[in-house]
Amino acid sequence: MSDDLHAEHTLAEHTHGEGCGHEAVQHGDHVDYIHGTHRHALHGDHYDEHESPAEHTLAEHTHGEGCGHEAVQHGDHVDYIHGTHRHALHGDHYDEH
């Protein structure tokens, strides 16, 4: 699998926060920072890059063993591969990365 599906930006490259110059958007239990057509979300020691914003509900499709999508461990959770993007469970929906 290609690392292109999981673009990251390090904290050393740019640290998001008050006054960083990027719009902050509350996203559930964390804040995303807008960069043109994508968002940065803090994930440990780096920022994940997400397309803005795409979500899929659990009612549309529930990921898990036997769902037909490749599972990839991503820190403390599992992402599911869909072509050129990943789905990550986030509360009552899946975020699309």
Notes on the structure:
A 5-stranded antiparallel sheet has the order 1-5-4-3-2, with no helix packed on it. It is 0% helix and 49% strand. It has 97 residues and is mainly beta. The two termini are 15 Å apart. A hairpin with a 2-residue loop joins strand 9 and strand 10.
Number of helices: 0
Helix/sheet category: mainly beta
Q: Write down the overall geometry.
A: elongated
Number of strands: 10
Main sheet record: 5 strands, antiparallel
Helix content: under 10%
Unreliable spans are 1-6
Work out the radius of gyration. 14 Å
Mean of residue pLDDT values: 77
Elements, N to C (H/E): EEEEEEEEEE
Strand content: over 45%
Question: Biggest sheet, strands in spatial order?
Answer: 1-5-4-3-2
Distance between the termini: 15 Å
